[in-house]
Amino acid sequence: MATRGANWGPASEASEAERFARLRLLRSPNIGPVSYYQLLRRFGSAIATLPALPDLSARGGAPYRPIGTDRIEAEVEAADRTGARYLFHDDVAYPVMLGNLENPPPILTVRGNDALFDQPAVAMVGARNASAGAVRMARDFAAGLAARGFAVVSGLARGIDGAAHAGALAAARGDGGTIAVIAGGIDVAYPPDHAALQERIAAEGLLVAEMPPGTEPQARHFPSRNRIIAGLAAGTVVVEAAPKSGSLITARLAAEYGREVMAVPGSPLDSRSHGCNQLIREGAILVQSAEDIAELIETFEGTARWTFREDGVAAFDGAPPDYGDDPALTEEIAAMLGPAPVPVDELIRQTGAPPGSVQMALVELELAGRLHRHAGGRVSIFV
């Protein structure tokens, strides 16, 4: 394996071979975070999981071949060339707030100062075609927060995102700064006109990607990016947004994670403010300054309410569930599913099978390319 030069980041006790196998497992076809963690719980390691994948997929009804080692070696070399490093879900430097989510990203690629993961963080998102006033407000808010030691998290998009990053970089002192979560690979500049800003963040802040190096951002990657933005932060601020925008998706994810949701009110005559006004009607906190935001995240003593370097809980810690071994269960569940999403809990209830057995049957169908996973723990089958 050409991993000797790879910077794997501050590690857990996993061996280099295991970490390479984890990367190969996650990059193999039809494996996402849910199936990744289920397989690690079932087999105990990625090294033990990889040889089992063809048999599992055959039970799901299709042949299977894991991604080749040469592809992973090439990826690791590409990450090395950019100065990036990998963070695995059980590494000591993996962000605890993100790790506390259900099925967090198993592997992140990062460039820059990962000590920013230890700081109280605020996500700031909004419209790409933002008004001049909103851009200035985002820049000023971010500067005020970074000056107080906060990490300002955003997605490096045009408009509000770019203004938030620029403001935080300009005013960062002490432990404050900015974290950019990008939808493509760590070595891909997107949007192209933010290439210089992206490099500056990698040098002075922290750049984070979930996709492999070389991946061009696609529409399906942005919801995953948004969940990382919301998951890293103690609260999310929406500065300006239309009613059906990715920024509102990020805010709603933050609410699902039990984090603060804040919004800046705007004129009802400007459609770019309708999303923020809608959030406020639904219970988001109205904010008008960096001080308003900081007060929601800090205690009255001025210290962060969140402790970021407590020991996190790995997504597959605890006793493994009862997986059983019932080949007929996979096809029984396939017959129960249709194109409409169904909660996994309902499948467990109707089959009467152990939860672990149902989860593994779903993994078998997913490996075979027959299962589609939806938000909220729901699944459907391709017909």
Automatic annotation (TrEMBL):
Gene Ontology biological process terms from the UniProt entry: DNA-mediated transformation
Gene3D superfamilies per UniProt: 3.40.50.450, Winged helix-like DNA-binding domain superfamily/Winged helix DNA-binding domain
Organism for this UniProt entry: Novosphingobium nitrogenifigens DSM 19370
Transmembrane domains' residue ranges: none
UniProt name for this protein: DNA processing protein DprA, putative
Lineage: Bacteria, Pseudomonadati, Pseudomonadota, Alphaproteobacteria, Sphingomonadales
InterPro entries given in the database record: DprA, DprA_WH, DrpA_SLOG, WH-like_DNA-bd_sf
Superkingdom, natural source: Bacteria
Residues in Smf/DprA SLOG domain copies: 86-297
PANTHER family: PROTEIN SMF
Family, per entry: Belongs to the DprA/Smf family.
Domain DprA winged helix: 319-377
